[in-house]
Structure formats: C-alpha cells, structure tokens
Specification:
The complex is a heterodimer. By secondary structure, chain A is an alpha/beta fold. Chain A has 5 helices and 5 strands, in the order βαβααβαβαβ. Chain A has a 5-stranded parallel β-sheet with strand order 3-2-1-4-5, with helices on both faces. In chain A, α1 packs parallel to α3 and α4 runs parallel beside α5. The longest helix of chain A is centred in the middle third of the chain and has 24 residues. Chain A is globular. By secondary structure, chain B is an all-alpha fold. Chain B has a domain of about 60 residues. Helix content of chain B is about 80%, strand content about 0%. Chain B contains 19 helices and no strands. Chain B is globular and about 65 Å long. The termini of chain B are far apart. The chains are: A alpha/beta, B mainly alpha. Chains A and B meet through α2 and α3 of A and α1, α6, α7, α10 and α13 of B.
Chain lengths: ~180, ~425
C-alpha cells in the first residue's frame, strides 16, 4: 500500500490522525507539502506593479523567499511525521534505523503538484480545504476539489477538525 | 498636430514605464518627450515651468516619504512588526489576518502603499511561514490593502499627494473627510477576504499551542524610529495650524532617521528613487501639454459635474476605469485638474477610484497586461484567476460603499 498524505498548514493534524487510523505502520507513506509559488509571485512581483518605481534591491541579509518557504515546509513535514509515528505508537523505522515515512516538499501550483505526486500512489489522504463548520459544497475549496475530481487513485477526504456539528442543509427534493 | 505629439509623448512614456527596458529607461523617455513638446511649442516654456512649479513640492514630499520609509526599514521597524504579529496571533490564523490587516492598513496610511508592497509584504510572507500559517490570505490582504487602505492621508499614496496639492484643503481636513471611506474600505476587504479564505483561516480543533514557532529572542522595538514617525504624523496634523507645509515635517522625519543611522550616500540616493522623481516631473509636463490640447476637455465631458452622490459615484467609477486602462499615476495627472474645478468632493471621489481600482488587474492596468502578452512575459506561476476573482468581489463594493461614505462625510465633517 503506497499512500500519499497531503499536508497543509491549516488542519494537517487532523489529516495525519486520520491517516494513522487508515494505514498500518508498514504502509509506504509519503507526506507531501506543496509551497504555492503563486503567492511568492505576488510578493516578488509587487514592486513591478508600481508603475515607474524602481525600489533599490535589498538582498543584504534577507533570506530569499523560496528558502523561507522550503524551511517552513521542511519543519511542517517533520512535525507531521512525528505526529504520525506517535499515533502509531512506534517509529516506523527500517532495520537501518531510518524512518520509512518519506517526506516530499514540492513547489508550484497546488493542484498540479499534488496530482503529479500521487501518480503512483494507491491512496491519497487529504483534508477539506474550505469552511469546515457545516457539511456542504463550501467545505471543499477549489484546489482540493480539483484534486478530488482528477485523482488517479482512491481518495480519503478528511474533515481536518473532525466531522462538523452543523446539520445537513437538504435541498428541497430530498426533504422529508 | 500638437495634440498628436502630446498624446504620442504620453503613450511613449507609459510604454517605457511598463516595458522597463534598460536601453530606453522610462525617465529618459519622459524627459525626451517633455523636451520635444517644449521644442515644438506644444507647451510653452512658461507652461512647462508652471507644471514644474506645481509638481516640484509634491515630488520633494514624495522623496522625503520614500527616505522615511527606507529609514524605518533600516531601523528594523518591519522586522519588529513581523515579530509582533507572530506573537499576537498565538497560532490562530484569523487573528493573524486581523493583525496583518492592522499592520498593512497602518503602514499604507502612514508610510504609503509603496512601503506596504516593497517592505511589509515580504515580512508578512516570512511571518506566515514562521508561524506555520497558509501565506495566501495574508499576502493577498497586503496586496489589496496597499491599494484600498491608501485613502486615509495625503501621504498614503502618490495619487493622494498629487491631488492634495490641487485640492486646496488642509492635511487634517483631508484625513477627516477620508477617515470614514477608509474604514468602510477596510471593512469590505475584511468581509470578502476572510470569507474567500475561510478554509485557510479556520481554527483547528485540537491543535497544540505553537510554542516552537515563535522565536525565543525578539528584536527590541525600534523606539527611536517609531517616535520619529509619530512626531512626523503629529507635525502633519499640526501643519495648517502652524502654517508650515507638511513637506517640511516629512523632510525632518527623514532627516532624523538618516542622522541616527547614516546609510551609505549611494544607498540614501537610491532610497529616494531619483529616476522615479524625474519620471513624475516629466510626465507632469507631458500631461499638462496633452491637457491644453484637448485631453482636459475630453475628461471634462466625461466627468459628471457637481458633488451629489451620483456625480461622486460617476467620478470614482470613471477614475477606476481610467486607472485600470493606463495605471493610476497617469490617470491622476489627467483627471486632477478637471476634478479640482468641481470641488473637493470630486477630487476625493477620484482618489477613491484611482486608489481602489488597481485591485482589479493583476499587473496594474490593461496597458501593462497587453504589454506582457506581447512579450510573453509572465510572472512565474501567477494565479491571475484568484487575484481577479478577489478584485471583482471587492473593487465595485468598495467603490460604492466608500464613495457613499465620502458623500456622508462631506455633509457631516
């Protein structure tokens, strides 16, 4: 069983907990984080949108954005692995002592990177990325919806904060 | 004939500013255009001098503000702001967004939209990464508020500075009239952005406190720089009572930050963006020439007269459209002389239009977009759809609500 778990900043804990329940410690688990480069483009391209302005470059002692993003992704993925191993109650270690949980940090457009990463997975675990207070179409944002619609494998769709308390809003034709 | 030359010079300067070519820098093209207009008699030497005299103080004011903002950066104001935001958010994404809103609205209002775009936004990106928050809502908030929070003070936006000189009102009266429109703009942005990013902002049940995310050692708050900024603001507020032009307070503030932490001379010169200052002056001469030869009467025929609510809405809408066609700086230079004739209300409604309008187009204007298409230059992996969707949901609402608030303020204040 090769499983891919999509780790996002909002609600990765719930995703990991569900993955720990669904998967046995001997599964081949990859934890994936995607840094959205469109946001970096928005930050870096900002000065370019100011007509005629030529702000002086300021690279002294400032970390490039991709380094900041990569560092953040790495820390998040390591926390997710720790949580997964803790939920299993045992570190998933190979005989050589290395963790069998793979960490994968990618950069780019979210939907594309996730779908490419799950090309050879049997199962994709992801969290709903919308408003999770009540069930409904709003609970799935446009990135997760695209991934769910196009994933080439089985998909486990998780409520990151647990199932919502709100009641189902039945459309007219389904009401009793 | 003169009209055609003036419009050609305007188009060439805009094209150069958009293309950002090394071989034909925008300031050089604009200066050459202005020189040609004077040489061909499209604008008299006196006319050019009048445009210079009109814009000179504004450009000096702008230079002082740019140096002030850069001084704040060197003093570590933005890094301290980032640390403050990270600590205050205490792991709650919605509170983080509220703090980013406050920081972006304050930075834009006091140190201008350039400071938010160039100096604050990268800090907010890094802060979001540090506290493990999805950076999207916070970066989009900075990007939006750089425009829509630039309504409050004459110093919040170059377009405000240009109009402030023409509107003939005091610094405090400008702020008093624009306070309500500014707050309304912030409220609309908050409602739309916090709904659009509801998923990224939801509180996570069962999340442990993010102890490791907050740095153990925080930079000391740059008290001196903050005091200088506060005193500069106080000077602005007192400027009309003291009968001292606000530009002198900006210069004093910039000087105080420079003396305390002297940058290298080249660094100081670059911080004032001399090329941009020359570009604004030359563009002012070109627009004055184009105005004399028909552009002003064209705008006059488009703008609804008077200062009733429908007229103000019309001025704001037309200004927003113009800003989206040719960018907000040329739009302001073109509309200001005409709007000033209609009174303070029309000038401020125009500022709402050119201030908020640019949130509609990712690259600033249709002209820029067309250019990017032509040269196939795209920002890597930009999500124009997301940006445009947010713009469509905020810009019309902010335009209408803020202009209505302005109309109210004009009657009450």
């Amino acid at each position: 069983m090769r499983a891919l778990v999509w780790i996002t900043e909002s609600g990765w804990e719930g995703c990991v907990d569900q993955a720990a329940m669904l998967l046995a410690p001997d599964a081949e688990v990859t934890l994936l984080h995607v840094a959205a480069t469109d946001v970096e483009g928005l930050v870096a391209g900002g000065p370019g949108r100011l007509l005629g302005r030529h702000p002086p470059p300021r690279h002294e002692r400032e970390q490039p954005m991709h380094a900041i993003a990569e560092h953040g992704a790495r820390a998040l993925l390591e926390s997710a692995r720790d949580r997964l191993e803790a939920a299993w109650g045992q570190p998933a270690r190979s005989p050589s002592g290395e963790s069998s949980v793979r960490l994968l940090a990618r950069r780019g457009r979210l939907e594309r990177e996730v779908l490419e990463a799950c090309a050879d997975a049997d199962l994709l675990v992801l969290g709903r990325d919308g408003d999770d207070r009540r069930p409904g179409p709003g609970s799935l944002g446009r990135h997760a919806r695209f991934v769910v619609d196009h994933a080439p494998c089985t998909v486990a769709l998780v409520w990151p904060g647990g199932p919502p308390a709100g009641a189902i809003h039945w459309p007219a034709h389904l009401r009793r | 004939m003169s009209e055609a030359i003036a419009l050609a010079a305007l188009a060439a300067s805009l094209a150069a500013a958009i293309a950002r070519s090394r071989r034909a820098p925008d300031w050089a093209v604009a200066v050459a255009g202005a020189a040609v207009l004077v040489a061909t008699g499209a604008i008299s030497l006196d006319g050019a001098r009048r445009a210079f005299d009109r814009l000179g103080p504004t450009v000096g004011f702008l230079a002082a503000l740019l140096v002030l903002a850069d001084g704040c950066r060197r003093a570590g104001v933005f890094d301290a702001l980032g640390a403050l935001i990270a600590r205050g958010a205490s792991g709650r994404p919605r509170r983080l967004l509220a703090l980013v809103f406050a920081a972006a609205a304050g930075t834009t209002a006091v140190l201008s939209l350039d400071a938010t775009v160039v100096l604050l936004t990268p800090v907010v990106f890094a802060t979001a990464a540090r506290v493990r928050a999805d950076p999207r809502p916070h970066v989009y908030a900075c990007s939006h508020l750089a425009n829509s929070a630039s309504l409050l003070l004459p110093v919040s936006n170059l377009t405000n500075l240009l109009a402030f000189a023409a509107a003939g009102i005091s610094f405090t009266r400008f702020a008093a009239l624009m306070a309500l429109p500014w707050m309304v703009a912030l409220a609309v942005e908050w409602v739309v952005l916090s709904r659009a990013f509801a998923g990224a902002l939801r509180p996570v049940r069962g999340r442990e406190p993010p102890g490791a995310a907050v740095p153990a050692r925080e930079p000391a708050p740059p008290a001196y720089a903050l005091a200088v900024v506060a005193l500069t603001l106080a000077g602005f507020a007192a400027s009309s009572a003291l009968r001292v032009a606000p530009v002198w307070f900006a210069a004093a503030g910039a000087g105080a930050l420079t003396v305390r932490r002297p940058p290298r001379p080249l660094e100081l010169a670059l911080a004032a963006e001399p090329a941009f200052l020359v570009f604004v002056l030359a563009l002012g001469v070109i627009v004055a020439a184009a105005g004399e030869h028909g552009l002003s009467s064209l705008i006059r025929s488009l703008l609804p007269p008077g200062d009733g609510l429908p007229a103000l809405l019309g001025v704001a809408a037309i200004s927003a459209v113009l800003a989206n066609l040719v960018n907000n700086l040329p739009a302001t230079l073109i509309v200001v002389p005409v709007a000033a004739a209609s009174g303070t209300g029309a000038v401020l409604a125009m500022l709402i239009g050119v201030g908020v309008g640019p949130n509609l187009s990712y690259v600033g204007s249709l002209a820029t977009l067309l250019w990017r298409r032509i040269v196939h230059a795209h920002d890597h992996d930009t999500d124009i759809a997301e940006f445009t969707l947010l713009g469509v949901r905020t810009v019309p609402a902010v335009l209408v609500a803020s202009t209505a608030a302005l109309w109210l303020a004009l009657h009450v204040v």
